[in-house]
Structures are given as structure tokens and as C-alpha cells.
Amino acid sequence: PVTGSGTGDGMAFTPVAPNTQDALVVPDGYEQSVVIRWGDPVMPGAPAFDFAAQTPQAQEMQFGFNNDFAGLIAIDGEPNNFYLVCNQEYTTEEFMFTGYKKLDPTENQARVSMAAHGITVVEVTSESGSGKLTPLVGQRNRRITASTPFTLTGPAAGSEFVKTTADPAGTTVLGTIANCSGGLTPWGTMLSGEENYNNYFSNADKVTDPAAKEGLDRYSFADDADYHVWGRYESRFDLARDPNEANRFGYVVEVNPHDPTSTPIKHSSLGRLKHESANIFVTSDGTVVAYTGDDERFEYIYKFVSSKKITPGNGASAMRNNLRILEVGTLYVARLTGEAPDQIDGSGKLPTDGKFAGKGTWIPLLTVNDDGSSESKIAGMTAAQVAVFTRTAADKAGATKMDRPEDIEPHPKTGKVYCALTNNTKRGTDGEAGADEANPRNENKNGQIIEFTDDHAGTEFTWELLLVCGDPAEADTYYGGFDKTKVSPISCPDNVAFDPHGNLWISTDGNALKSNDGLFAVALDGENRGETKQFLTVPRGAETCGPIITEDRVIVCVQHPGEEDEYSADKPYSNWPDGGSSQPRPSVVAVWKTGGKIGV
Ligand code: FEO
Ligand code: CA
Ligand code: CA
Ligand code: CA
């Protein structure tokens, strides 16, 4: 539980300096161990990982590739054990197979790749006196892949836009893919965002129906976006045969790890976009508010406000009710205005009042009623169209184009909402939207963190930039007003989380400052607001994801170690975590303080 407002208490560690080591570097006095890595057994009977002879059958029972979001979910009555839930976002085939030919997978390679996607639920057990976590292979675990059946809910379900040859009812979708970040719900489930699914469908350019074509274009489907080439072996990924299959991905999915036989859900009431994540705030009357961002340049920030109230408790009937909360309510998109529009010139120079700040409005797009009926709030679009082509609805609503909204998460104590805007090098170029106060730099390479003070169930908010990232020696950066000579440099924020003291932790992807990506703690409240300290760095070419911060341990996902220019299994740039001349393996890592609590 988060008990503080984030004054910087709990950030007492020596910051890790920027570096380019092929290692996970932690502060002095901290230890680390790999919890689980690509290919490790998850399901009973899973074979040991064999890099040279990987099969789809083995991969379906093993930990998948490129772990992104991670969450720990308590198990009732078993205080030392947790469900570790983890997204397996995408595959980098060049790392998975020696001699891989780009855009030309064998059937075995394509099917290993499908099985390496999705979500893993794996029980882990802790050891007293250390932060180490050990996975337990067993029937409680689960691998969800690109082939697992999901139930589609909300206005998209059964609509003409999602019916396919294999599913004429338009209610059962096979698989989840491109699962980036996510969140945990108060009722004990995991939410996961389907993000870059446009990279999995072939023949987008052969679709001729104008409406279908427009829908594909608005979500960046194109022949050259598909680098997995699954359509060669599975026709549903070939848009020339089944263009509607594209409309069955791009949702927030919900998984109940307490029941490994449960059918996971795709929630279309939260819209279809490139969801980075979804994270929940519960208001004092039990209204559930889910925040979600659309991660592509110039895309939008959304929230869903439930009209049902949360059912307290963790029994079976509470779970049944709560699993339906994200179906009924209103979906909104954010429009932001700045306080000093005349002072924004795209350089990142602070307005004279010393901050980038302003107001905003949530514009309704869609309401789903208790009886399952739904109403579009956008002229010329049906409710089903708004649920499936949500970007188009938000365009019509006049939403504010942001610098790639990544993870967004409400602070459990203060209720303020933090969103990472990772970068946008196209801002202000070639006829694209120029800088505004919330996205104050053109050709933005380093990103920013925005803080919303939201009337959660209402439609008004104020906002302020907490960080404008980049080299603190540069004039176009801002660290919450804190002394910039005393901060760790941060660039390209991606995932956000909170520690038990209420400080914000940020993991990065794509550090534009020529050092490895890392994990940072940032104070939010009081005189240290904006203090930023790097807690760890990940190995060469990797992105830092996951993160989970508890009293006892920090967990990070190390995604795509070694992913540098011209990477391949034939000449790996990273040998992490197994060392020697081994292939790099995406892994989940636990870090803890020897004989103590994190940051204390
Ligand atoms: Fe998969 Fe938006 O990062
Ligand atoms: Ca991300
Ligand atoms: Ca998060
Ligand atoms: Ca990312």
C-alpha cells in the first residue's frame, strides 16, 4: 500500500551513474537475481529451454519473449506467494533463431513467435531475509498466447466490424498480441494494453473497400508495418482475406489469475487504440475510473468512468460483478489548454510564471448503459464505430494531440494522475502539429511527465508538467523546480509506478542521452519535488519495463537486451543474463537491499 505523498522519503540510495555496461547495475548495498527469463518452464511438463531447437509446443509452456508490464497479485492466505503477471509484448526473431531471414520466417519460427506472445501468470514464492523470488511450476500458472480465446465485450462485440470467417458472431477473439504495459485492479485482476498490433497483419495495402482502408490507415496498418509475417501460415493475419481481424485487436484486456480456466476479456467500452496500459482509481462512492493512453505520435489520453460501483471483497460473486465494471459507463478523451499560449515557441523555454500548466476538459465519446445498450456522443458515428474506430471519434471531438502517451497511473494516495509522454521527434515538422504548453518542444527527443489534478468522475481537470526530460545541463529541461545540478538525467519515460512512500518511479525506453535505459525515483511533494535519482540501469540495448516497487524489492522487466543496430543471434551485442557467449534473454529481475528496505 502507498501511504505517503512522495516527499522523497524512501529515496535514500546512491544514484547509479549513466553507463553503457552489458549488465544490470544497481546501487551499492543492493543485490539482484533473475526471477524468470525467456524460455524458462512455466507449465507442468514444460521442457527445459533449448535455444537451438525451440518448438511452438515448448514455447507454449515456457515464459514468453520481451516481458513488458509486470504485476504481483497477492494470493489469499499465502503471504509468501504471489501471482507474477507479465506481458510478453513482441518477439525479436533475430534473437530467437540463428540464421533468421528477415521477413521470411519458417512455419516453425512463426508459430514459436505466436506462442512467445501474450501474457504469463506464474506463481512465485519469496524467501525470508531477501527480496529473491522463485517461480513455481504448477497448475496455477497460465500461458496466454496469440491463440488463446477471449470474450469481446462492449459495443464492438457482435458488430459488423469484428465478424470474421472463423467467428461470424463477432464475440470470440483468438489471442492477444503486442501487450505493452498494464495495471492491476483492486479486485485482483490484471489489465493489459494491446499496443502495436499493426505489426502483425499482412496485405493491408491490398484492402480496397474505402471504409475498411480508412480504418486501417488511421491505425498505421501498412504492408511495411508487418514484420512478423504470420499471415503466411495463419489466414486470419492476412487482411486481404479477413480485413475485420484487425478490428479485434487494440483493446484493454482483463485476466483473472485466480482462476486459470477463466476466459480472458477484451473490453471495447474502453475504446480501440494503441493502448499502452490502463490503471484504475476508485472514488469515495465506489466509482471506478480507468485511465489509458494511446501510444503513437500525436495521439490522445482517455479515461473511462464506470456507472456501476465496485463490489467490495474478494469472494466469487464480488469477482463476477467487478469483472463487468469496465463494460458499463462513459469513455472520454482529453482536451488540454495552456495558461500562457503566447509564450510557447517550441524551444522548451519555461513561461514566465515558472511552469508549464493549464486546464482541460474530458469530452465524452461513448456511453454504455446498464442494459447493454449504448449511445455514441459523436455525430455521424454509431456506438460500435466509436468503440472500434475510437481514434476517428477523438479526432472529431477535437482532442489534444500528445507526444506519445505511454503509461498513465493515478497516485493511490493523492489521486493525482501521472502520464509519461515518451518523445515525439515529429512535433513541429512537415506540417505536423507544433508545440503547445503540454507538449512544449518541437522535435521532442526526450519526452515529459504530465501531472493531472482530476475530478475523477467529472469532466474538468488542471494539469502541470512535472518533468521536461533530457540533459539537465540543457535549458530546455525542467525537473519540477528542483536544483538541476543534483538530479540524474532522464530521457524517454515509458512506464510509471509508485513506491510505498508515494514517490513516482519511471522506467525509460530509448534513452536519447547515449547511455543505457534505467529506472528512476522522483519526489512529487514538498521541497524535494522534482528530485530525480537513477536506481538502476539495464544491459546494452535493453528497455526498462515492469516496474514494481515494494518495501522489500524492486522488480524490473529487462526487455530486448542487445537490441542495437543490425542485431542478430549470429552476432549478439549482449550476453545478458547468462553470460559467456550466450544469447541475450529478456528477463524479470528482483533487486533488494541487503538486510534492509528499499530506499530507506
Ligand atoms: Fe510498447 Fe508504448 O511502449
Ligand atoms: Ca511502453
Ligand atoms: Ca504502471
Ligand atoms: Ca516502449
Taken as a percent bin, the fraction of beta residues is 25-35%
Looking at the overall shape, the CATH architecture of the domain at 67-92 and 180-195 and 250-593 is 7 Propeller
Q: Which CATH first-tier class of the domain at 67-92 and 180-195 and 250-593 would you pick?
A: Mainly Beta
Instruction: Provide the residue-averaged pLDDT.
Output: 97
Structural class: mainly beta
What does this structure look like?
The chain is 8% helix and 31% strand. The chain is mainly beta and 600 residues long. A hairpin with a 6-residue loop joins strand 2 (67-74) and strand 3. The chain is globular, with a radius of gyration of 22 Å. The longest helix has 9 residues, at 107-115. It has a domain at 67-92 and 180-195 and 250-593: 7 Propeller (Methylamine Dehydrogenase, Chain H), CATH 2.130.10. It is built from seven helices and 32 strands. The structure holds MU-OXO-diiron and calcium ion (CA) (3 copies). Residues 89, 180, 195, 276, 295, 406, 494 line the site of MU-OXO-diiron.
Give the topology, please:
Elements: E1 30-37, H1 56-59, E2 67-74, E3 81-88, H2 93-96, H3 107-115, E4 118-126, E5 133-136, E6 142-144, E7 149-153, E8 172-174, E9 179-184, E10 190-194, H4 210-218, E11 252-255, E12 265-267, E13 279-282, E14 287-293, E15 297-299, E16 301-309, H5 316-322, E17 329-338, E18 357-368, E19 374-376, H6 383-388, H7 390-397, E20 402-403, E21 405-410, E22 417-421, E23 448-454, E24 460-468, E25 478-479, E26 493-498, E27 504-508, E28 518-522, E29 532-537, E30 543-549, E31 554-559, E32 587-593
Bound molecules: MU-OXO-diiron and calcium ion (3 copies).
Residues 494, 509, 543 line the site of one calcium ion.
